[in-house]
Amino acid sequence: MTWIILALLSHLVFIPGLFDGFSLPKRVYVFGLGIAALIYAFRHRNRLPLFPWIGAYLLVSFIPIFWVANIPVFIERLALDVACFAVFWAVAVSRFKPDSYSLAVLFSIAVAVIVLMAEHFYPTSHGVMGNPAYSAFVSAQAATLPTTMIGLFPVFAALVLVVMATASRAAIAAAIIALFLIGVTRHIRFAVKVSTFLVLVTMILVMLYAGRSDLEQFRSRWIVWKNTAAMVSTPATWIFGIGRGQFEIQYPAYANHYEKDDQMLVSADHKRQFLLVWGHPHNEIINLALETGVLGEALYWMILCSVLFVYEGRDRLALSLWGSLITTLLFSVFWFPFSHPSMAITFWATAGLLWNYSKNSPKLEFWARR
What we know:
about 375 residues; 17 helices; globular
């Protein structure tokens, strides 16, 4: 329980005083948490889940150090991966009481509410924590979790939080799809009710965003994705990637390779215009393939699939944790939660909780009957 709370608290570092989701204090907090979790985890090193696969992924990710353009950024980004896996291990091997699972879920919802309140009462031109999508994502990640309580009403109430944080259509869509998948997996009657409600919500959202230039925004990201492909130019980078954190360093040289990136006109700072606009391709699948290569991407998805399919039951707690992870994965197609310290550490803490629950659920009769 302690590791879950500490991971979730990373969202609240310097709220509402410092509106920067990638701030130095936040990164220091997450890296410090990772070191502490690593020490704790290796006290249980004989039963660390997925240790061979995670070790192989980290080894493959380290190989590009021989050709990366910026070693400090590479080390920092790789350190985030280590911190996330360390927290995953720490949560996975911890001992939980039955009530601890529900308390962790409630605490995550409280964090989402606090983030939304911070954005409402302390607004900035860039949104809470330096990006308007931040609050939308945090609330979307929490929207699937109240299914552990009872019935549909808490789910709908949580989804309202996502609708309130309308800065990110990707976050809203991710939450909607995840809730539908939970309903389908749970049972048909629940799925029919959920899908009916979500159709209505979707219609409302379509009307809300009909007048916005979302298609142009998607086009700009599509251009970045096309130009990103040009950055993989040698067999070594195909296999092992260009190195963690290197996209923002190398993209300026490839920004107009296949198609002109009009976003370069947004920034008045001509020396950093690409870095200010595209510090990430806004697609974690593409970014992972680019920075860790085909081998790193394959290993990472093997780890993810092992976590997602570790539990075969249909009780609400397991489904809500699974739904939260699915929400993050769906959101990552149009944003970068795995590159964000708080979002990444929260994802892997939730993954550790799902793994822990899957191994102890037969002993937890209360939740097993849900």
